[in-house]
């Protein structure tokens, strides 16, 4: 019996290892591990044989989104939609790309792009009413956008209501955002804490509470919430990088900020929200603030080795190596 159990365990382990090797070739895993150049090369190579595969354009959208190359992200997103117009996630990611470009555009162009992203988010929700990310992004658009381009707090509140049964934590989060937008800090804090309770202490919900404290200059409370976020039982690894960024931007405990990002890099698994090339870049910026130019340059080079066209890392490397 003992031998049989060992054999079963070995077979199971082999399956996991083989699955891991195969999964590494998947675009989503290449994006998560931060091998953006490899992901783009692989996807473009596959497109030569499968030019009508909408998923390949979709993953290219996400790759260029990570690189902050909004024009290429949009171009590939539009191609994905043209080939598969009924995919909710394709509309969601195209809308996100429009939104990022809008944030950096002149007012006239921004208004046009805002209209496009609203339509993409609304279509994503229409195609899949249970798409929690789409409803959340749409609600945030309604909350932040002026009425002239389709924004409105009543619309955001309607999405929060719709999420009450789909995702109670997201519903509380959006109600918190609404309260924060209206400068009702006590209600915002109550809703963010309700999200934490509803999720069982999810790291991202602790991070949202930390951001409220950051916005209201309650920096001691912010650090306490970040400690909860980075040690939460329901962990989201990207929170380590985001917490490090928050500490860096507020000038609080830079050594702790660096340690959090190192922990993310060393422990894994990485996520697409914080791919490794970005984590190395963030660590570089923290080290640069600590006047460790050599350490910062090494991190920027590591970032560029994974994503050679990531312009923030190249600009930072130029800055710290300038004689």
Question: What is the global morphology?
Answer: globular
Find the count of extended strands (DSSP E, 2+ residues). 0
Q: How confident overall, as mean pLDDT?
A: 90
What is the C-alpha radius of gyration, as a whole number of Å? Answer: 21 Å
Order of helices and strands: HHHHHHHHHHHHHHHHHH
Annotated CATH architecture of the domain at 253-323: Alpha Horseshoe
Strand content: under 5%
Q: What is the structural class?
A: mainly alpha
Indicate the low-confidence ranges by residue numbers.
1-24
CATH fold title of the domain at 253-323: Serine Threonine Protein Phosphatase 5, Tetratricopeptide repeat
CATH class of the domain at 253-323: Mainly Alpha
For the report, how would you describe the main beta sheet?
none
Q: What is the terminal-to-terminal distance?
A: 69 Å
Fraction of helical residues: over 70%
State the helix count.
18
Describe what you observe in this structure.
The structure is a single chain. This protein is mainly alpha-helical. Among the domains are: 68 residues, Serine Threonine Protein Phosphatase 5, Tetratricopeptide repeat (Alpha Horseshoe), CATH 1.25.40.10; 71 residues, Serine Threonine Protein Phosphatase 5, Tetratricopeptide repeat (Alpha Horseshoe), CATH 1.25.40. Helices cover 79% and strands 0% of the residues. The chain is built from 18 helices and no strands. Helix 2 packs antiparallel against helix 3 and helix 8 packs antiparallel against helix 9. The termini are far apart. The N terminus is likely disordered.
